[in-house]
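Help!! Second protein's tokens look totally different from the first
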Amino acid sequence: MLSVSHRYARNRTDAEDIFQESVLKVFSYLHQLNDVEKIEWWIKRIVINEAIHFYKKNKSLVFIEDYQTVKSAEMETADIYKKMEAAEVLKVIQELPDKMRLVINLFSIEGFSHEEIAEMLGISVGTSKSNLFDARKKIKILMHEKVRGII
């Protein structure tokens, strides 16, 4: 749960706050769990929802509306990923603006569709796609900068 919190948080303090609230909700709603075999997904969903709630409550998330269909840009930096440790990649993701970090985590890591993300965050599908495109572009730039510092 804490590692999921870290993916959505900008720093350790925020991750711990998200984690703590998630634990409280897990215990509060444990009686509502119908299928014990799905507990891992159920808990993960609580953490994700709490991360979204945390940023809606504590931060002013501003999503840039872009109704154009944004095609996913292919990442040309496969070699960069091989040179970086997982912790370094997480740090790059944590450097993203909040809206981009939420969308890239929900889409690329959690596997939600743009329609689901739009509903969860209260944005349009086009805005979700646009923020994913911008996040990937920003990650590419940040990773190039980090790799140049490594080499």
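Here's the second one for comparison:
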Amino acid sequence: MGPLMGILTAGVVLSVVYLFAHVAAQARGRAWRAAAHAVGLTDLVSSDFLGVETGVTGRAGMLRVTLERYQRGRHEKGTRVVIDGLGHPSYEFALRKEGMGSAIEKAFGEREIELGDRGFDQLAYIHGSPRVVHAVLDHETRRLVGDLIDGSIPTGEAGQSLKARVAVSDGALRAEIPEKAFQPGGHQLPDALRTLLEASRRLVLPDDIPARLAENVKADRLAQVRLSNLLTLTREYPDYEATKTALRTACEDGDDEVRLRAGIALGDKGHEVLRQIALSTDVADGQAARAVSALEDSLTLEEAKAVLEKALGAGRRATAGAVVKALGGFGGVEVIESLAAALESEDDKLVAAAAAALGATGDAAAEASLIAALDRDGPTIWPAIAEALGHVGTAAAVPPLQTMASRYPFDLGLRRASRQAIAEIQSRLTGATPGQLALADGDAGQLSLAEEGREGQVSLAGEPEDSTEGETQWPTDAEGGPPERDPSESTEGEASAPHPPARRETD
């Protein structure tokens, strides 16, 4: 009797389990059909297996909706809703909740798209085509889809929702809704299905992507999202009329970065908004600097000088640096006073830029300000000042340059900058006469007289590699004059001789 009783007991248990499963399946099927009718699905078709209903499919306009059973592991089961027909080709649009899987994908180089909505970007893992992603995920869509991706489906009742896993890929939205015990299908399924359909309609691929991007540029509530849409539009559809309209609209945006990017993208037609940004002290320093750089030669001299004056007064170093570069392109004595003011800045980069701009003017009137700037204790800026003096300096700049190099005798960069500047100055000293400058290492700032027949030469003793052919630098004796020359010694072909010929005295 024992084995027979066991078989009978097992049979009874299996029958009860099957009966319960059958009853649950019937209840689930009724819930699916009720939900389908509640949201107005048409062309309903049921599927079953061994008399047990396994799914219901219907249509909501262009969307095909399927409700089917799913099971995860041993304990979780419920209803899966698949809404197909969103129109996205494979890999064009995919959206799911951030998690371990997305972290692994990003670690292996998968590129994620960020919209500029910080909360949504942190919640959702998005990849696909930027133009499609930005076009589809406008403000209202992000609000609705954000709740779904976060794991809950609002059901219309105050504060009520269903827990679910929701993702979008391959042109379909998929939601898995776990069942509560003894509630197959769930009484909230119609409201949940209604929410899923609303979200799916908003996720459908737009017929006119450029127009949708342009609308997002105009209407989205977040400036960073408007900017992302604008950049996508100008990159993907640069010649479309919708792009031009969006750029003109963006020039009046309340966000400075959006207006700046629109002005830059418009080229000549965006110069007016760029001027406004450049001349304003209310925008960020870096943004004003970029506006100045984008304007290039379009700023007038008076505008550039006004911007520089404001920037220096407000400590806006980036803007000042951009204007200094622009002023260097004007040239002429009119810019020297403004650029000289920039040399007094505490910012080494700005001082170096101002020195370069003064050198670019090619005007000797810039020399005095540059020589004065050498008095600053700043070996990082001296090379730039020396280079500028090489362009505009006269013989008066030579002693200060030698002094500069002597202050840091082991800094080869400074010595090289000094030598180069002096060589450039030398090359411009045409028509010089005997008695011109000759610099001796270790005697910074001292003047000595050049030999007869070597007019116009400025040389640096101790630097034979920079000497011109046949030049000689003669060391002086202990009393400051040249030592007597031994007549028996020949100097032909020598770079320097122990006994130079006597120097001529000048009046």
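Reply: Different proteins will give different token patterns, so don't panic. The longest strand covers residues 63-72.
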